[in-house]
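INTERNAL TRANSFER SHEET
From: sequence group
To: structure group
Subject: SEC63 domain-containing protein

Please process the attached sequence and return the structure record in the designated field. Keep the field labels unchanged so the import script can parse them.
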Amino acid sequence: MTELLIHAHLTRAAAELYSVLHKDYRRMLEVAPRLLEELMKIAVKPRSPHGHGWLKPAVGVLQLAQCITQAVPLSARKASGGIAPFLQLPHLNETKVKKIVPKKVCSLGEFRGLSMEERKDLLTEIAGLSAAESQDVESVLEMIPSVEVEITCVTEGEKCIHEGDLVTVYAWIILQRNNGLKTALPHAPYYPFHKEENYWFLLADSVTNKVWMSRKVSFMDEASAISAASIAMKEANESLGFSSKDVDAAVRAAIGKVKSGSRLVMGTFRAPREGKYNLIAYCFCDSWIGCDVERAVKLEVLKGNRAGKRGWAVEERALGKEDVEEGEEEDVIQEGDDHASDYSDECE
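Return from structure group:
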């Protein structure tokens, strides 16, 4: 029964349900975010022997969360041309979207990169929307976030990362919108309950399907984010021996970054055996389709560990300098485009 209710929601056919099912349908939608978050925690839970979570199940849960929020069928994520992100825009259905994707544009990011006049021409002349409907689309596009990730991985107090080191991850999640808002509720006309945007940061190895580190990120509580970033920058710079003037400057810079729409994510993982690792830093939004970003992270681990010298307990602290070499990020390898779905078509 639950599967059928989910199918009705994703295909926007809830109005066709028998009245006796309406209460169950609303209850299913109400508890869905909490259930999906618990599934996410299960997916990324560290497991022996290396303390890693599962990447593909985590991505699948987040994709389902996006589809439930926007009432978009999972099959649209697999369809050629990447139509799923466009179905969350007002007045657009699959028939209208296929008139412009992929014939005119190939992704939501490319569509957003057009000028307003170019988008209006596509929507009115090709997709058949009215001028007023085209303006509604523009209003929602201004709400959709653009996300960027800046990440550094280091061993505290060392220039290199060795086997067995406790590696600390410092990642800034940077969010921007065309309307200038730092926080906003998602445009979700088919979801009848209060829904806040949440983001998940994952540092993972896509080849081995392992999540090395994960954190849930919220942009709603700016005061808590300022406090956390301030403490992290203060501790980091003091531990590195910087003067009080430099420490204060780093704290002020962090506060300014948070106020401008960024959040600091911190975490640790144990360095694996010697080698070069090609990891990916993911940032997923649980409310919008097509806003996810991936950044390649190259991690080099040297032979031998210093556990006997420094011990195994390394406190989490954020860096305040930009000149750390180990674990620096590479160029963005994917942004704004949809990920291949890991779900079957059973619920579609």
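Handover comment: DSSP finds eleven helices and nine strands in the chain. The longest helix spans residues 22-44.
Transfer complete.
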